[in-house]
Design goal:
about 80 residues, mainly alpha, 3 helices, about 65% helix, elongated
Length: about 80
């Protein structure tokens, strides 16, 4: 583990402290989880962008053509 000094506005620090206490974790753990969540979100966005580059309209239409043309079940209707 490494140490990092962090300066936050007081209002943000108060929110972090309150939420960490509500979750029953330390402020350090809360911030660690928040950073990990942000990194995972960015990695997912990059992954999806790369996947999207490989797709084409023709591939999409080919997949959709395989779907059966039936009405949804009653529990699936809006």
């Amino acid at each position: 583990m490494s140490t990092m000094n962090l300066t936050l506005p007081q209002s943000l620090q108060a929110q972090v402290e309150a939420l960490a206490q509500k979750e029953g974790i330390s402020v350090t753990e809360f911030i660690t989880l928040a950073v990990a969540e942000k990194l995972a979100t960015l990695a997912t966005a990059d992954y999806l962008a790369e996947r999207a580059k490989r797709g084409t309209r023709d591939k999409l239409l080919a997949v959709l053509a395989k779907a059966p043309d039936v009405d949804p079940e009653d529990y699936d209707k809006l």
